[in-house]
Amino acid sequence: MSLAAIRIGKSGIRFVSQYPPLNRGRDWVIEGWWIRDHKPDSWPETAEERKLAAMRYGLREEDYCPYPREMHVGNYPDLGRINYALKDPYENWSYPGMRRNFNEPVDFFHDVIFADRYTVTGVEYASSYSNIFAFWQKFVRLLQYIGGFGLFLYLTTFMIPTNEVPVKPKQYAYDYEWAFPYRDPKKFPLVHYTFEPED
């Protein structure tokens, strides 16, 4: 923003706080995006509310189906489970990394069924690891992993030598004061006084 853009008005100087892009009466956000626009409204009760909710999410009225009221997600539409693996990789997506187009509504569980997470294609369950072994076999395998790692920690803690200094007897400040320099300090034991009341 140059000085020429600020020097307008009767006084000759316009304050930055009066600059229109900064004085919109709301937070500094990207134009056309506001957090309240993405917050779902209440669950639609009437046909008119269903029609408005369908228009809001860019769906036809006959295609709009909200989630059950017990999920507490408002009027957000149930779009079905369409995950990353089911979408065409050769289509010209607006966001190729997510295989999503601009303003395309996403499923409520989109963060769960993303490319590197859970998938719902149905093909992977026939040969998945979870169907090869029974529950007790998976539990034994888990115990093997945990027990092996615990044994490794035990062995590395107690068998590998460390550079710890052995514990020495407690040293007092005036051990060698009377014996210095040529006498034996054991002949001068220290007297320690306590402040306990006499009986």
From TrEMBL:
Pfam families in UniProt: NDUF_B8
Positions of transmembrane segments: 142-160
Coiled coil: none
A GO CC term assigned to this protein in UniProt: mitochondrion
Keywords assigned by UniProt, alphabetized: Membrane, Transmembrane, Transmembrane helix, Ubiquinone
PANTHER family membership: NADH DEHYDROGENASE [UBIQUINONE] 1 BETA SUBCOMPLEX SUBUNIT 8, MITOCHONDRIAL, NADH-UBIQUINONE OXIDOREDUCTASE ASHI SUBUNIT
Protein name per Swiss-Prot or TrEMBL: NADH dehydrogenase [ubiquinone] 1 beta subcomplex subunit 8, mitochondrial
Species annotation: Trichinella pseudospiralis (Parasitic roundworm)
